[in-house]
Amino acid sequence: MKKGFFTFALFLMTISAIYSQSVIGKWKTIDDETGVAKSIVEVYEKSGKIYGKVMDILREGHKNDVCVGCTGANKNRPILGMVIIKDLEKDGSEYNSGTILDPTSGKEYKCYITLETADKLKVRGYVGFSLMGRTQYWQRVKN
């Protein structure tokens, strides 16, 4: 009985460690200019690619904002629930070859993400090549 419990506990700790070292999960977005938390984005995998969806907007008075600057299907759509990270593919320890949408401006950028630590995600949006862009660091949301 004790051996079974120990094995089960070890299994749960292993799963927890693996999960915490993945980009998958909920992340608090932090404005790189002000340091203020803006939203919660859920990063998930679908068909072998990584996506990110706005699950909550943390700034008061902005929960019902729409993407005025967006084009196409996202134009004037609510930011809450919007998929802002699309089609990232795993490349070693980095996920790249996809895009990120800035719902404040409506602009879409090339993107890569990588874990800095188990609870810190580096998110880089850029135009052309990665030197011409902006980096944010998101914090993992603990359940």
Automatic annotation (TrEMBL):
Residues annotated as domain DUF2147: 25-140
InterPro entries on file: DUF2147
Pfam families xrefs: DUF2147
Name of protein: DUF2147 domain-containing protein
Organism of this sequence: Flavobacterium agrisoli
Source lineage: Bacteria, Pseudomonadati, Bacteroidota, Flavobacteriia, Flavobacteriales
